Amino acid sequence: MEKITSFTIDHIRLLPGVYVSRRDTVGQEVITTFDLRMTSPNDEPVMNTAEVHTIEHLGATFLRNHQDYGKKTIYFGPMGCRTGFYLLLAGDYRSRDILPLITQMFEFIRDYRGEVPGASARDCGNYLDMNLGMANLLADRYLQQVLYHIDDSRLIYPE
To answer: Which residue ranges of the chain lie beneath pLDDT 50?
Structure first.
């Protein structure tokens, strides 16, 4: 069986960043999958499920309500390895194209206070597993260490 594309990326050299993971065509539409890598794989500790879950709820809420990208958002959710998130958008994009969107989203997550959207027994299957404080902290870390000073080494997968 062939390795899937995401397993062919050199995770030893992969830095936190914003990468195009793949492009797929569904009918006439291109779907771009982004790898929003927040921690250095196999080097830094992975994120805990509570903050990952909180970032997922806040990020999905932000994206689905975004004036320009709300209807283009196909999916936003965590990687199983807990080192980042996948974002699927309808359209053919480069990493640099979505930097303003990703920066706005993580600023929203960093600054969010109050009840996490969907964090109730009625709305979520594991609503108690949330950590807003850590989600705020991790969003700020991603902004400060990656998004505010990003260059091509964090926009294009290492070869």
So the answer is: none
Question: Which one, of 133, 125, 109, lies nearest residue 48 by Cα?
Answer: 133
Say which residues have a Cβ less than 8 Å from residue 1's Cβ, sequence separation at least 6.
none
pTM of the model: 0.96
- Helix H or strand E segment including 18: strand 17-26
Q: How many Å is the maximal CA-CA distance in the chain?
A: 47
Which two tokens mark 96? 């640099």
Structure tokens at 49: 């499920």
* DSSP string for residues in 88-111: EEES---GGGGHHHHHHHHHHHHH
Name every residue whose Cβ is closer than 8 Å to that of residue 91 and which is 6 or more positions away in sequence: 29, 30, 31, 32, 72
CB contact at 8 A, 6 and 20: no
C-beta atoms surrounding 63 within 10 Å: 22
Q: Sort 10 into a burial class: Cβ within 10 Å, 0-12 / 13-18 / 19+.
A: exposed
- Side chain identity at residue 99, one-letter code: L
